[in-house]
Specification:
503 residues, binds adenosine-5'-triphosphate, binds magnesium ion, six-stranded mixed beta sheet, Rossmann fold, alpha/beta, 17 helices, 3 domains
């Protein structure tokens, strides 16, 4: 007889309400040592809430948590961590001007200052789990992947054996994702328990041992990864229908050039390398993708084009009017809608409600005789909520209560509603579930008929599905621009993105 190993963590009947919303409803789940769990579910399904309960950030309204058979109650993340449960949040909690070792030490129990021994043990942990990072490096000099390793070291240094990750791959490059999965496997082989939230079904297939699926606050499926045959099965479990993520792209009918830039460099007044000698044009009726691995200058380029940071040199022609780069950001440009990658920081305000957020960039549209017409804005917001299935609390709820993906959909809906000449969409589906991704892709293709679309993405599948032309950016320069119809170009795009081929 084989008996299954005792659970390291057992949840029963976990329920959590936020006002009228039941974010978690009677959830039972048990976790074992030496397993990697993928937690899936649509935006707003309750994944982050459940993990925050495990990590002591929220307390459940009902239900119990048992740790190695004993009932526990965490009043704070510190208490959860003392019980061996640690969480790596999406937004890293590191002090940028301090070193890796100092960050890890800060996270340790207060009052202990064994700096030398600590330094040595950090190295030891790093080697043992394959977490390549220099303890003496300053966090501000590290890539996102390296910062994430510091977060993991922080937890390991506190002897956590259940490690929880909220969408850990969203900020990583392809190579860094592969590296993270190797770390997951090392941790698992040492008997640790990994739980990670993701929307990328191929990641689930690549690394998970066990899969749990949430829908509308409930745990609707728990299964062994070995029993899942395809991503299609998973998608069906998540949303109740098949999603193939193949959008129909009618041939482009490019019209007049909306934006043309040449010799563009920036950002001005910054020591960051930024971008250089950027040239492209994008016409009404087409989608131009600029694809690159995160950190290759595209974030600065997007902010510069959106007028948020000053450009250094170059020329732009927008709707027939010519601009010198330094003048471009002086005032907002009528006809540009911008969906930034960092939606909760730059695109929305958490403390005000959905309707007010919807009005943020459209004050002129919704004002009448110097007064804001809230009724009309509410109707427009309600239509957007309906179209993109934005869930969470209703129109009067503060935007800060929305789940990550739902906030993203709200910003996107608002920007599309502005009827722009140029839509600047930066990582528009990052953090979105498969159903929402499909809806956004369709919305962008639909938008193509009306405006020029500049899509800035790190997701090759997204670029290939949507774009008419793909420009690859590497170390701040566009290496080449390739017609997306050319399927033989896929390998070349990958090589260019990795800097292994020149333009
Ligand atoms: N602090 C809060 N106050 C009020 N409502 C909240 C709060 N946190 C979450 N919610 C609501 O609880 C529900 C579950 O949200 P949660 O963040 O757990 O979803 P999620 O599955 O992580 O979604 P996503 O994939 O979009 O990140 C949502 O309806 C959300 O609006
Ligand atoms: Mg979440």
């Amino acid at each position: 007889m084989t008996s299954s190993p005792p659970a390291v963590l057992e949840l029963s009947g976990i329920t959590k309400h936020f006002g009228d919303i039941t974010a978690n409803r009677a959830i039972d789940w048990s976790l074992n040592a030496g397993r990697i769990y993928a937690l899936l579910g649509e935006n707003g399904a309750g994944k982050s809430t459940l993990m925050s309960i495990l990590a002591g950030r929220y307390q459940p309204d009902a239900g119990t948590i048992r740790r190695q058979g004993r009932t526990v109650r965490f009043q704070s993340p510190a208490q959860a961590l003392a019980a061996g449960i640690g969480m790596v949040y999406q937004r890293f909690m590191l002090v940028a001007p301090l070193s890796v070792a100092e960050n890890i030490r800060l996270h340790g129990a207060a009052g202990r200052s064994r700096s030398d021994r600590q330094g040595a043990s950090i190295r030891e942990l790093a080697v043992r789990y394959g977490l390549a990072v220099d303890p003496d490096a300053l966090v501000q000099d590290l890539s996102m992947g390296e910062r994430q390793r510091v977060e993991i070291l922080k937890l390991l240094n506190r002897r956590a054996d259940i490690l929880i990750f909220d969408e850990p791959t969203a900020v990583l490059t392809h190579t860094e994702i592969a590296g993270l999965f190797e770390v997951f496997q090392r941790l698992r082989d040492e008997g640790k328990t990994i739980v990670f939230i993701t929307h990328k079904l191929e990641e689930v297939m690549a690394v998970a041992d066990e899969i749990a699926v949430m829908r509308r606050g409930r745990m609707v499926a728990r299964l062994a990864a070995a029993d899942v045959r395809s991503q299609h099965d998973l998608a069906r479990l998540m949303v109740g229908r098949e999603i193939i993520l193949n959008v129909d792209k009618p041939p482009a009918a490019p019209g007049e050039t909306v934006l043309a830039v040449s010799g563009l460099s920036g950002p001005a007044g910054s020591s960051r390398p930024g971008f250089e000698e950027i040239a492209f044009e994008v016409r009404r009726g087409e989608i131009l993708a600029i694809i690159g691995v995160a950190g290759n200058g595209q974030e600065d380029l997007a902010a510069g084009l959106a007028g948020l940071t000053p450009l250094k040199t170059g020329r732009l022609t927008f709707k027939g009017r010519r601009w010198r780069a330094p003048q471009w950001g002086r005032k907002p440009h009528e006809g540009i809608a911008y969906i930034p990658a960092d939606r909760d920081r730059t695109a929305s305000v958490g403390a005000i409600d959905l309707v007010e957020n919807f009005m943020l960039t459209q004050l002129a549209v919704f004002s009448r005789a110097l007064r804001l017409d809230r009724r009309r804005a509410a109707a427009a917001t309600a239509a957007a909520v309906e179209r993109f299935a934005i869930r969470g609390g209703g129109l009067k709820a503060p935007a800060g209560n929305l789940s990550g993906g739902n906030l993203q959909k709200l910003v996107l809906a608002r920007e599309l509603a502005r009827h722009p000449d140029l839509l600047l969409a930066e990582q528009p589906t990052q953090g979105l579930d498969v159903r929402a991704t499909e809806a956004v892709w369709q919305a962008l293709l639909h938008q193509r008929a009306a405006s020029a679309v500049l899509l800035i993405t790190g997701d090759l599948k997204e670029a290939l599905s949507l774009a008419d032309r793909i420009a690859v950016i590497f170390r701040g320069r566009i290496l080449d621009t390739i017609a997306a119809r050319d399927s033989a170009a896929i390998d070349r795009i990958k090589l260019l993105m990795a800097g292994l081929e020149t333009g």
